Amino acid sequence: MKLDNTFLWGGATAANQIEGAYLADGKGLNIADVERVANDKHIRKVDSKPLKDIYYPSHEGIDFYHHYKEDIKLFAEMGFKCYRMSISWARIFPNGDELEPNIAGLEFYDKIFKELKRYNIEPVVTLSHYETPLNLVQKYGSWRNEKLIEFFLRYCRVVFERYDKYVSYWVTFNEINEILNQNEPYHQAGILFNDNENRFKTKILVSHNMMVASAKAVKLGHEINPNNKIGCMVQWPLTYTATCRPKDMLARQKFMKNDFYYTDVMCRGYYSNVCRSIWKEENLTFDFKKEDLYALKTGTVDFISFSYYFSSVVKMNSKDKVEKLDGNPYVKKTSWGWDIDPIGLRLSLNQLYDRYQLPLFIVENGLGAIDKKDESGDINDDYRIQFLNDHIKEMMKAIIEDQVKVIGYTSWGPIDLVSVGTGEMKKRYGFIYVDKENDGTGSLKRKRKKSFYWYKNVIKTNGESIE
Fold this sequence. Notes:
The chain has helices spanning 15-18, 64-78, 89-92, 103-118, 134-140, 147-162, 178-181, 186-189, 199-224, 246-268, 273-281, 290-298, 342-356, 382-400, 450-460; strands spanning 8-12, 35-37, 44-46, 82-86, 122-128, 169-173, 229-235, 239-241, 303-307, 312-316, 322-324, 360-364, 406-412, 432-434, 446-448. The protein is an alpha/beta fold. It has an eight-stranded parallel β-barrel with strand order 1-4-5-6-7-9-12-13, surrounded by five helices. A three-stranded mixed β-sheet has the order 8-10-11, with helices on one face. Strands 2-3 form a two-stranded antiparallel sheet. Helix 2 (64-78) runs parallel beside helix 4 (103-118).
């Protein structure tokens, strides 16, 4: 099997996990800058401001801010056709609500895009990847407040216009569907709940404001340049039923509703029966403004981008409640307990394409593992090669055999970075090793792993080397 030359191979990162330089050149604080690992169990704590003598993983990241030339050169050596990255909103508007942008922040991304262009690497830019400016959370209540739509669009206009000659692919919000799936969607929307707050209602209102902002950004981006391709981004948890019992099938349908909620609205342009059924389950109704509903209708996305790491299994328990099982007995697990299910990626591609008939973009897929150096100092990460080989093989089957339209594939963490989930460095994803430990110590020196050369060959052969 072999893909054509237009397929976009590459890797994906997020600014808050790699850039560091968290207050450099006028950057403001964002939600990641006050998040820390509290103890060895990796319980996250969120502070009102950075505290002295406390380690915050995002403050240095892997210092991409000062190593970007070296890192992009390594990406180019692998043959990247594209690089999915995010712009830190707080670098451009430090408080999020200013009228004028921070020029130094804009100039930093000027340098990034020029360096990518030098190697003919196509940027795929996420506008908001867990990087909401902290001031917008503390002053306005984050996305509970519809004023954030105005602030987000001001930011979008600045970067759409500034980087028009460099960027054609844009993504609005990272893993937006996790708002409903998370108990407290801090990363996705900067939300920390108040006492006695109706959490479900807040999640729906927050989701609405963000989806309206996304739709208006799509429309704005097309007005600025009709050639812009602007997509949504969701975390896709393909779900199986524990048995063929009809009630278990019903459990699967219910479990996936939260994810279809977002793609239905952002791809179809309206709140579907699936969306309304979720409201009904909570005995709530929502009377959204006509202009908001019009924005959703006229700002549907051009493509669906998604992350895929694992699949899930559910059943209906004796109380007729959906119950998620602790793993799938037919697949292996990662060191962090995630099911390894390459065929699930093929099924996900078919599921999304069949439902929406929009081009798909796999923008995150990878294996977090503890990498150890051998006696010569090399990292022979055959386990990562096997994981990625098996997933890419199933992706290619979906494209070639199932005729699913896929724009590209960007592995998560082509270079080791700070884990957003646990704040760890030892949970490594990269083809490139970064000498940094969980406590922040290390030289930050970069080193190619065995998987670096493997992925280089995959790109060179357009997948023909996949076994």
